[in-house]
Amino acid sequence: MLTSHINPQSPSFLANKAEMEKLLQEFEKQMEESRFQGKEKHIERARERGKMLARERLELLLDRDSPFLELLPLAGMRTKGGFGAGGTNVSGIGLVQGKLCLINSNIGTRKGGSIDQATLLKSLRVGDIARENRLPVINLVESGGANLPDQAKIFNYGGESFREISRRSKLGIPTISVVFGNATAGGAYVPGMSDFAIFQKKAARVFLAGPPLVKMATNEVATDEELGGAEMHSRISGVSDYLAEDEYDAIRIARDLIQWIDVGKAHFVPQGKLEAPRYDPEEILGVVPHDPKVPFDVRELIIRITDGSEFSEFKAEYGSTLVTGWSHIHGYSVGILANNGVIFSEAANKGAQFIQLCNKNNIPLLFLQNTTGFMVGRQYEEGGIIKHGAKLINAVSNSEVPAITLMIGSSYGAGNYGMNGRSFQPRFLLSYPNAKIGVMGSEQLAGVMEIIQRASAASQGRAYDEKQGDFLRQMLIKEAEDKASAWHSSSELWDDGIIDPRETRNYLGFCLAVVYAQEIRGAEAFGVWRM
What does DSSP say about strands 89-96 and 68-70: parallel, antiparallel, or unpaired? Predict the structure, then answer.
């Protein structure tokens, strides 16, 4: 059981908390925008037609008081010409009939539910999450299909979502599609390839080509209902398995189906009363620096998210810039790797050994990222920092226990890789609003470019323009800072969502509940390590 050395009343603590609260205000503003469900006139039109909104359907589908882990709510928030934060889909994980399910709800009142590039990439990512965690998928469908101006960007990738529905079905991971409105063109294959399809009477319209295109292609005149109505597909084509009277009936049928779906026995479910941390999670805002350049002891965060603030540390006196050890979060065992600065050879070796141990004991991993990367310089190159860093990356690459990554500060260079960044496919990757990610820090990047430019000027026998150089340096720093921000990362789908640091324990607990719902088995072997 660790003891905190933080004074919550100190000026530095209170000043940092105030800065983090500013970041959270921006976060809440962005999240509010992501909950936009369309212009008022489109919402009114939906109401007039007796339709529910996307988030209302989702709430009705979920069990009463179920938690809901929304995924990628800020995807595309900075994409020029896109549909805004979150696209036209609400996605996340919640309980239906007591079973964890991944749910996608099309926002039919936002751009007609059409799919832009960010929405497509979001759907592909949540498909990966469903497959990796063996989660049944429920699609609440009302979409106009691909956004035609984006077709050049999304056509070649769009088929992947259909392929994945089929592959999940082969693995015994079912998809249920509930169609409340349009599902046209390629979108018709979403219910068409699902294990179960539920169509709402007098509302569902599922066809490869609507009346105008059919007229142009074949000169045939047909109505929406004749081409793709719910009753036609339920009684004639067989594309629909269930004909629902209305939206409530459609959701009732989906909930009824879930109770018959076998999701397997959970690997582990916590029993008994859980012990909360001994330190207030509210203090995390003062503990974690708003500026990642400011160092702090990551144990101060760990004891505010773990059960009873307990942490069994591994190799506490060795490789001190990487903290490793075991703990429980909401009753679930987890092996934690947390940065306490730059990664030296000793820290890399320690991390690789710890990952092996967690795999031998079938314990999931939690990476808390806050590092500028691996140590550089002549002394460290001679000491083999490359081969030692490679061991850590090798261990992360070949680890087979589920892993969760949380960005709590800096994530630069190969440190991102060694600490299980996006390209290493963690089951979930979440970020704090203060997180930074990039090849290197903005000032280092600008400094390197300046050195190169000065050397270039000298080689050409001309003077370096100090005024222009300073201007370019400031521009580079500003651009690099912007591109490294959590807002940019989340917009580009480099994480699965930004979270309020005070809710860290609850988010991690829910993610662990998801990964513990299936069998956990560690790797039997790793790749060749350069000794």
Answer: antiparallel
Q: How far apart are alpha carbons 514 and 430 in whole angstroms?
A: 15
Angle formed at CA 59 by CA 58 and CA 61, multiple of 5 degrees: 65
Amino acid residing at 79: T
Structure tokens that stand for 109 in this block: 């009142």
Find, among 518, 2, 16, the residue nearest to 286 by Cα: 16
CA-atom Rg of the chain in angstroms: 25
Both structure tokens of 144: 């106009």
Closest CA to 335 of 405, 425, 410: 405
Q: Which residues contact 317 (CB under 8 A, 6 or more apart)?
A: none
Instruction: Please give the span between the terminal C-alpha atoms of the chain, in angstroms, as a whole number.
Output: 35
Tens-place pLDDT, residues 47-87: 999 999 999 999 999 999 999 999 999 999 998 888 999 99
Q: What is the pLDDT of residues 372-419, one digit of tens each?
A: 999 999 999 999 999 999 999 999 999 999 999 999 999 999 999 999
- Rounded to the nearest angstrom, the gap between the alpha carbon of residue 291 and the centroid of all alpha carbons in its chain is 23
Phi, psi values for residue 206, rounded to 5°:
-120, 110
For strands 137-143 and 403-412, give the pairing. unpaired
- What whole-number distance in Å separates Cα of residue 436 and Cα of residue 369? 10
Element housing 142 (H / E): strand 137-143
Dihedral angle, C-alpha 327, 331, 332, 334, nearest 10 °: -10
Is beta strand 242-244 parallel, antiparallel or unpaired with respect to 196-200? parallel
Distance CA 38, CA 50 (A): 16
* The token pair that represents 161 in the structure block: 């979502």
